[in-house]
Amino acid sequence: MRRLAEGGRIDRSQLLNFYFDQRRLQGFAGDTLASALLANGVSIVGRSFKYHRPRGIMAAGPEEPNALVTLGDGALAEPNLRATDIPLQDGLYATSQNRWPSLGFDVGATADMLSRFLPAGFYYKTFMWPGWRYFEPHIRRAAGLGPAPTTVEPDPERYLRRYHHCDVLVIGAGPAGLAAARAAASAGLDVTLVERDVEPGGSLLWRGGTVDGMDADGFIAGLPPLRLLTRATAIGYYDHNAVTVLEHLPPGGPARQRLWQIRARQVVLATGAIERHLVFPNNDRPGVMLADATLHYLRRHAVACGQRAIFVTNNDTAYDAALALAEAGVEIAAVADVRRGADGDAPRRARERGLKVLDGVTALATTGRGRVSAVRIGDIGGGGGRWMEADLVALSGGWTPTVHLHRQAGGTVRWDEGALAFLPDQARQAQRSAGAAAGAVTLAQTLRGGHEAGAAAAAALGAEPSVAAPVAEGCHVAAPRALWQVALPPSAGKQFVDFQNDVTAGDIALAARENYVSVEHLKRYTTLGMATDQGKTSNLPGLAILAETTARPIPEVGTTTFRPPYVAVTMGAVAADAVGEDYQPRRRLPAHDEHVAAGALFEDFGPWPRPAAYLRPGEDLDAAARREARAARAAAVMFDATPLGKIEVFGRDAETFLERIYCTPVAGLKAGRIRYGAMLTEHGVVLDDGVLARLGPDRFLLSPSSGAALRVHRWIEEWRQGEWPDLDVRIANLTHAFACVAVAGPQARAVVARIAPALDLSPAALPHMAFADGVVAGVAARIARVSFTGEVQYEITVPASHGAALWRLVQGFDEITPIGIEAWLRLRVDKGYIHVGSDSDGTSLPGDVGFGPLVARKTGDFVGKRSLLRPDAVRPDREQLVGLVASDPAFVLPVGAQILPGQGVALPVPAIGRVTSACFSEALGHGIALGRLRGGRGRIGDTVEIYHLGRRLTAQVTALPFFDPKGERLHG
Amino acid sequence: MSRYSFLSLLRNGLNHHRRWPQAWRSPAPKPAYDVVVIGAGGHGLATAYYLAAEHGIANVAVVDKGWLGGGNTGRNTTIVRSNYLYPESAAFYDFALRLYERLSDTLNYNIMLSQRGLITLAHSRHELEAMAAWVNAMQVNGVDAEAIGTDEIRRMAPLLDCSTSARFPVLGGALQRRAGIARHDAVAWAYARAADARGVDIIQNCEVHGLIEEAGRIVGVETARGPIRAGKVVMAVAGHSSVLAAKAGFRLPVTSYALQAMVSEPVKPMLDVVLLSPATGVYVSQSDKGELVFGGGLDLYPSYGQRGNFPTVETVIAGLIEMFPGASRLRWMRQWAGITDVVHDSSPIIDRAPKPGLYINCGWGTGGFKAIPAGGFTTAHLVARDEPHPLASAFTLKRFETGAMIDEAAAAGISH
Amino acid sequence: MLLIDCPWCGPRDEIEFVCGGESHIVRPAPEVDDAAWADYMFMRTNPKGRHAERWGHVHGCGQWFSLVRDTVTHEISAVYRFDQPRPAERD
User: Fold this and answer.
1) A155 with B328: Cβ contact below 8 A
2) SS percent in chain C: helix, strand, coil, step 5
3) Is A703 helix (H, G, I), strand (E, B) or coil?
4) End-to-end CA distance of chain A
5) Beta partners for A258?
6) What are phi and psi of B80, to 5 degrees?
7) Residue C25, C-beta contacts closer than 8 angstroms, at least 6 positions apart
8) N or C: where does chain B have the smaller number of CB atoms within 10 Å of the terminal CB?
9) Do C19 and B301 touch (CB under 8 A)?
10) Do the Cβ atoms of C34 and A870 come within 8 Å?
11) What element of type H or E holds A749?
12) Helix (H) / strand (E) containing A256
């Protein structure tokens, strides 16, 4: 292997240093890592998955099964990258994989020596005694490919996403794609052309040929305006012509990769075809390559992949490669053609130029240490043959059209016996295939097919190309001949089908013998096609061998499903910017900075970071919460209630509508007054509780709980539109338009009086469950008396832009203590107020949590009503909300503890309830809890046994509320 | 049945594996069977196996429109667990797990049960409380469960971001040590091989076009290979239950959704437990081959298309990276989807159908794999005895009328 | 990745919408028996093929509407408002 002095699309003026397994090597700009390794004479680049056999570079594109490396190290390491897809950069650092201690000497290769005992699926038949758990860790360590990540730090590099629409999306900028894009763009359409490679041209860049008398560069230069993306691989074809494309951005760009989601009116798939290898004993030795890859490396990178080559082929295409290599000075020992008397132009040309062509033969074996040194060429039936020396064995087993995207798009394929390939048949979406992807062989066919596909896409959009189809010289091609494996006994050596996963023809025969004859069973039992290359070279030979073994035609065996992504995609590129803080962006309270200044300890509640408590020096959360709770009972506290829902419902039928939405009465509520209520799902389950205020005859303001605001809004909107479109009702979710500060405590009135001096705050003028509109600090404000704490409480609502100012204003009073959500939630436990989602869950009916009497007062229908009549809803032993006090009153019962059905009962036993909220009550001086207990309301005064993480204790069942049962404080 | 063992592997290795017998036959359908099971997935095959093994009913056919194990059994993320809150669920799924624990021996096929433990993470104090309730309920129900702290989680999953700066910090978790993963295909193949050995006919590529009804009773199935009479017919067809029910003239409380799963490229061991995060909705484990196997929520609309949608992939992968920032530079290799039979309370239906002679096993939703042994065992019991197995008596159609749902997700207070 | 033609906004990507399940389910009066209520609450046609279903443009105009979608191919054959009947279908 060597670099030629001339030719190739490399820049010899730009010498690049790179590292492979810490060895410093050199290449040129325009190289891939693979071409540079070949130019440096590196034969072994990796080890296979199962048997750890040494492997070399086989292909030149995304089908490469062997040459997987880890790129970079530390936080920048990325495993399992194909050397064939990596443009060489200065300083590039690549490491081989799946070997220990080194690529040359790999302990794991003992698996190869034992391989006769490790056929497909061997693990299903053994390791059962004494137990899989004794074997699994060893198997896991031996498996895997590249190294696992070592860090919990974020990816140091960035990824972007982009949404894009176009008239025609052409995938693949080889001759077919270029012709298609040219036709569509010439029709005045908005065309996007994506190309996996670093430059457009496709096979023109290495197979050569002229288009309209021009070379690739000339033809490309003459294209009409269109959007071209290079290093951009279409990876998925989804419904309604949505295609995902992964674009690698150049070093120094805004990000490392960009994932496009492209919605195209028409798509042309010019995705080309992938050459197959031939299956024969020990066909995996380094130095055995695909024929087209040898041409690729020669013409693109000026690398001769060997000094003495033997080509083995079942079709015409390998002859061009053989001739080109011969011209470049590689000795061509022979072209072995499995056919007899192939009469195509290429074989004829090869014979004319003196290449030694052997007919009706194939490769039967290879030998060599580290790299192939000779190949046995003999009859395709497996007999005879003689050893021929060669350090390069170039295989062409025919071509597999890349129909992945066509299949992902729901298109069907048909088997073409002449082409020995599955070709696209019916399309389900607005797409068509062209060129080699559609079975074209010659450049002339490819160009014509591409142009026709572009013209058809244009025609579907009512446009017409203004250029004629490009032309190239035609040629005669002889049909390929099927030779899926060589009929030799297992002792002749392994015939590899799937190189990366080490699946052999023998494995396929074993699967067939054991009746794993579905192509899906074959795949799963042998792991054929499940490696990182996803079977690009191996799937068709594999299923053809299965067909041969089970004496079925290939189409009857069928293909496995083609699933996205076409090539594996860096996961960071899929997540793109949705990482870190932007994974699910937080929503900041208007007074966030004020909370920070006040010493808030934040906790997340849905999207909101909310102050759990305001810590003073030396305090932890509990100490702060207890102090804040005491302040609420003794003086006044202020609470940021901004996330509380604010949904306006208005229109002539607003009351009728809400009467149907709430399970509690709405009618009769006077303007200016507020009611507490709840709404149910149609299953009768408590969806949310909260207050609603009547702003006017036809106008209500709903205050669903903070976590439910969005859900409630969507839900009632769906009922309005879907069930009662006849009602004159409109709904507006104003939750985020306003900020709200609640002031609670015995001195709350005094505080509010100072900030809203114009308002009459006397209990007669503004009683509990009433509101008034006024002005606070020069801004329109709504002041509502409701209470979650059991104290006199005012909720002051102002536009969100004034939220911070309002907070600062209230915080300025000496008697005020800021209170966090922890103490706020504890205060309500004193009162036995439920917190939906804690004391109720998705099974709680209104009667279970205390809404029974209110619900009973309603006569009309409401959402969820009928479900409350079902047998399970009316059984007497439903879990009901009760109070619980531990037998040791100082003890706070743990939330989540289960209530057992009797003292000292043995487990397992069905629990009869559980503790749902608990805290130390500052007002009462002992621990209190809320819980759900079967038939609980009939068990007040009972002693029950509580279970928590192996401990047992007892508690008394009590009535609710614990504190101020008459509500004198909140009415005060 | 030729016995699989280390010795048989050695012996066959010496003759290049040329003498292994078929794992199961490919018989032609007989005109009539005592029982015809529609659907050769895990539940159908297990039902047939337990009919033969537990009830002496071996004159059974399992018919499938495709290949055995080709539906959800071969498409799931292979997690087995019994961490359920309700006594009915706990008893049922723990029975399944106990059968799984013996299954490789019972069926003489290594299903590679790996009881590596499953941690459900808690990301807030509210979730910690819900988790305490869950762990307590499991312990009270006799199922192994532990509440563990962040340090323990960090020790068990060193690459999980347990830092306080995470968008959803890890505050603790619930661990079921007996939970884990098993090789999904092997479960189907093991049941198929064992059922076949007991005389069950597994008839693949034999689509059921209709049910044969006589005098108001289902007495057989019309198939692509002709009519097959049956004393009793069982439908175990997961996401296609509604389609079959429609042929029999009734509806089910089932909606079919695509559930996606995906894998990364294989890497060396990096995660030794199964993890589930309620905040991201992502569950993830690492296969023995080295791939991260992960998934999230259902696709967002009803679907019979066995393919995944990209928005769900974006959500799930972003969630995975939130949990494992280091996974950003691993590569997503393959996505696929199964069609799940979702019912309102996410609990199964194992019951007689509204049509006599027809029996239903469905409603597994996203969690059918872990239930396979118990689903098959109790369905076989129902079919053989014509009465529900005590472990499955709550899982009937009647609950949709009475309202006696067994709604784990609703009750747990966290998604799972 | 559906492209849904919102009757008010025009074609938009599916991520702007939520699917609300089967359309044309009639909510019975509360007097019906448990079986009829269960039928309304839980029983679904769930067809493999064309399905009339409700969608809400919740990240757009907020409007709900119906469409007919093939549950296998995801082809949308009709989009119509709640005040319009399900269009007659061609095969």
Assistant:
1) yes
2) 15, 35, 50
3) strand
4) 95
5) A160, A247
6) -120, 140
7) C40
8) N
9) yes
10) yes
11) helix A748-755
12) none
E strand map for A380-428: 386-389, 392-396, 399-401, 413-416, 421-424
Contact between A331 and A304 (Cβ < 8 Å): no
Task: Inform me whether the pLDDT recorded for A295 exceeds 80.
Answer: yes
* Structural tokens at position A429: 């979406």
Cα separation of A887 and A895, whole Å? 16
Q: How confident is the model at residue B416 (pLDDT cuts 50, 70, 90)?
A: very low
Q: Which long-range contacts (CB under 8 A, 24 or more apart) does C24-33 make?
A: C24/C52, C24/C66, C24/C86, C27/A723, C28/A866, C29/A861, C30/A861, C30/A865, C30/A866, C30/A869, C32/A866
Sign of CA dihedral A662, A667, A672, A675: negative
Distance CA A594, CA A596 (A): 5
Q: Which of residues 671-690 of A touch C (CB under 8 A)?
A: 682-683
Element housing A761 (H / E): none
pLDDT for A143: 87
Contact flag C37-A682 (C-beta cutoff 8 Å): no
Helices and strands (H and E) in chain A: how many? 27, 50
Contacts of A152 in chain B (CB under 8 A): 158-163, 324-326
- pLDDT-wise least confident of A240-249, B6-15, B312-321: B6-15
Q: Determine the Cα–Cα distance for residues B116 and B284; give it in Å rounded to an integer.
A: 12
Strand partners, A673: A770
**Other Cβ atoms within 10 Å of A369 Cβ, number:** 8
CA separation, residue A686 to residues A248, A463, A690, A961 (Å): 50, 58, 11, 20
Residue B412: per-residue pLDDT: 61
For residues B185 and B193, give the distance between their C-alpha atoms in angstroms, rounded to a whole number: 12
Task: Say if the Cβ atoms of A861 and C62 lie within 8 Å.
Answer: no
| Out of A525, A910, A949, closest to residue B135 by CB | A949
Sheet hosting strand C18-22, strand order edge to edge = C18-22, C50-56, C64-70, C76-80
Where are the strands (E) in A622-752, listed by range? 636-640, 647-650, 674-680, 686-696, 699-704, 730-733, 738-744
DSSP state of A59: -
Q: How many CB atoms lie within 10 A of CB A351?
A: 14
Q: A308 near A330, Cβ under 8 Å?
A: yes
Task: Test C37 with B304 for CB contact under 8 angstroms.
Answer: no
The verdict on ipTM greater than 0.95 is yes
Mean pLDDT of all residues in chain A? 96
Nearest alpha-carbon partner for A160 in A578, A585, A583, A577:
A577
- The residue-averaged pLDDT of A185-202 equals 98
Distance (Å) from the alpha carbon of C13 to chain A's nearest alpha carbon: 9
One-letter amino acid identity for A206? W
CA trace torsion A179, A181, A186, A192 (10° rounding): -170
Q: Give which of A177, A182, A184 is closest to A200, Cα–Cα.
A: A177
CA distance A573 to B234: 46
Contacts of C59 in chain B (CB under 8 A): none
Chain C residue numbers touching B302 (CB-CB < 8 A): 19, 21, 46, 51, 53, 71
- Which pLDDT band, with edges at 50, 70 and 90, does A199 fall under? very high
β A92-96/A11-20 pair status: parallel
Residue A618: CB atoms within 10 Å: 7
Q: Residue C56: which of A163, A241, A718 has the nearest Cβ?
A: A718
Cα A54 → chain centroid: 33
Structure tokens at A839: 């004391």
Hey, which residues does A796 pair with through a beta bridge? Answer: A741, A783
Distance (Å) of CA A439 to CA A211, A341, A540, B76: 19, 23, 15, 36
pTM for this entry: 0.97
